[in-house]
Amino acid sequence: MPVKSGLKWSDVTPRSVWMNRRALMIGAGSALVAGPALARIDAAPSRYSTDETPNTLEEISSYNNFYEFGFDKGDPARNAGGLTIDPWSVTVDGLVDRPGNYNLGDLIKDAPLEERIYRFRCVEAWSMVIPWIGFELSHILAKVGVQPGARYVAFETLLRPSEMPGQQRDNFPWPYVEGLRLDEAMHPLTIMATGLYGDELPRQNGAPMRLVVPWKYGFKSIKSIVRISLTAEQPPTTWNKLQPSEYGFYANVNPGVDHPRWSQASERRVGGGFLAPRIDTQMFNGYGEEVAHLYAGQDLTVDF
Ligand SMILES: Nc1nc2c(c(=O)[nH]1)N[C@H]1C(S)=C(S)[C@@H](COP(=O)(O)O)O[C@H]1N2
Ligand SMILES: [Mo]
């Protein structure tokens, strides 16, 4: 299918949106707030944000998991700089009314950007607090039209070994894939992030667009997405394919269900120093009031 052309991705990045709004404000004669406020994107704050203190941009963009750029936490920051993110297109297919190969700018131009400060809990028992800029995934799903038979959403990361050195080794089932049940994907807490700290998303954090599902372990939050497919059957996911006894499809943060090799009852907040006391991990990462109902009647020791 042809690429639907129009807006370039660079026309709708957080920075350009902010610059445009700023230009509008100047045109309307509004006073501009000087100082730090200028470094913040003019995205609406969200009632879903935590009031915990965010990690620094340095911490968030230098301690990463993005195996396409290497297995060490510092590898993505070192190796992701050469990733071409503009132009970027996203294929939407499967059980949708308007499938196609969309220019990213066209796909997301009407989605309202918000700042969402979320807790983020990795399966390896470390955590951060991250001020994302993004929009609810449901906006994309509404735009492409979900058909009645769809029950899951599958996601795929870019496959480009020339720019992703980790993909030059064949010891990993590239491309990285993930999936959500449709009700999880439609939940207002589930966002697509395109920015961080009021600016564009660093490549090591999954530019130009990555999923963020704050009540699930970090590996569900797939980066640098190039395909979104609506399916009737539960899609395969990378970590579940690699080690099904350790990584389930749901991967909800759950202090009561340990990973076979370590406890999930507590976590280390990145940046606190190794001497800082560990924090108790909360059920659904603290988002239970919003999401527990999605799993009513399921045994979460089986559906882990
Ligand atoms: N494509 C892709 N997405 C990925 C990963 C990856 O290796 N490749 N790692 C996952 C894991 S294990 C975690 S913890 C988060 C880390 O996100 P962050 O680096 O922005 O904190 O990204 C997830 N998304
Ligand atoms: Mo992770």
TrEMBL record:
Its EC number is 1.8.5.-. Binds 1 Mo-molybdopterin (Mo-MPT) cofactor per subunit. Its cofactor is Mo-molybdopterin. Pfam families: Oxidored_molyb (PF00174). Residues 1-39 form the signal peptide. The keyword Oxidoreductase applies. Mo-molybdopterin binds at residues 64, 67-68, 122, 157, 205, 210, 221-223. Part of the MsrPQ system that repairs oxidized periplasmic proteins containing methionine sulfoxide residues (Met-O), using respiratory chain electrons. Thus protects these proteins from oxidative-stress damage caused by reactive species of oxygen and chlorine generated by the host defense mechanisms. MsrPQ is essential for the maintenance of envelope integrity under bleach stress, rescuing a wide series of structurally unrelated periplasmic proteins from methionine oxidation. GO terms for biological process: protein repair. Belongs to the MsrP family. Heterodimer of a catalytic subunit (MsrP) and a heme-binding subunit (MsrQ). Residues 85-239 form the Oxidoreductase molybdopterin-binding domain. One of its GO terms (molecular function) is metal ion binding. This is Protein-methionine-sulfoxide reductase catalytic subunit MsrP. PANTHER family: PROTEIN-METHIONINE-SULFOXIDE REDUCTASE, PROTEIN-METHIONINE-SULFOXIDE REDUCTASE CATALYTIC SUBUNIT MSRP. The keyword Heme does not apply. InterPro entries: MsrP (IPR022867), OxRdtase_Mopterin-bd_dom (IPR000572), OxRdtase_Mopterin-bd_sf (IPR036374). It comes from the Bacteria. Keywords: Metal-binding, Molybdenum, Oxidoreductase, Signal. It catalyses: L-methionyl-[protein] + a quinone + H2O = L-methionyl-(S)-S-oxide-[protein] + a quinol; L-methionyl-[protein] + a quinone + H2O = L-methionyl-(R)-S-oxide-[protein] + a quinol.
